[in-house]
Design brief:
single chain; 3 helices; 74% helix
């Protein structure tokens, strides 16, 4: 068998990945996101109502929504800025700390190619060739 003909997982007990197993992390992150956003909504709603009562004003949803979305986008802007900054730092650190030169990768690829050729040669030797007659 050549390296181009890779068979599927031969383990008999191997279960196919279920939808929940494949997408479970996405659902957990979505639930955490919605939970934190709802937490922000109710906390800010309580604070907004208290502020309205202190100033003797009646609560109005029309006044609350712009306030809520402004703080939401402010939080998201801050988080994205941190995320992008961390990604840039990590990429920079990767290139400084873990120098992976193209030469090293080419050397590794050459070794893998050599191993594959040897395996192919051995498999060719193991299979008797039929002669035409």
């Amino acid at each position: 068998m050549s390296h181009d003909q890779i068979e599927p997982d031969p383990r008999p007990n191997r279960r196919r990945d279920s939808h929940l197993r494949r997408w479970g992390a996405v659902y957990v992150l979505a639930a955490l996101f919605l939970g934190s956003w709802l937490g922000q909504f109710f906390t800010q709603l309580s604070e907004f109502r208290s502020d309205q009562q202190e100033h003797g004003q009646a609560f109005a949803w029309a006044d609350y929504w712009p306030n809520f979305f402004a703080s939401t986008f402010e939080n998201w802007q801050s988080e994205w800025l941190q995320l992008v900054f961390q990604a840039i730092l990590l990429l920079g650190a990767k290139h400084i700390l873990f120098r992976v030169d193209a030469e090293d990768m080419e050397r590794l690829e050459a070794k893998v190619d050599k191993i594959v050729r040897r395996l192919d040669e051995k498999s060719d030797e193991a299979v008797p060739h039929q002669s035409r007659g």
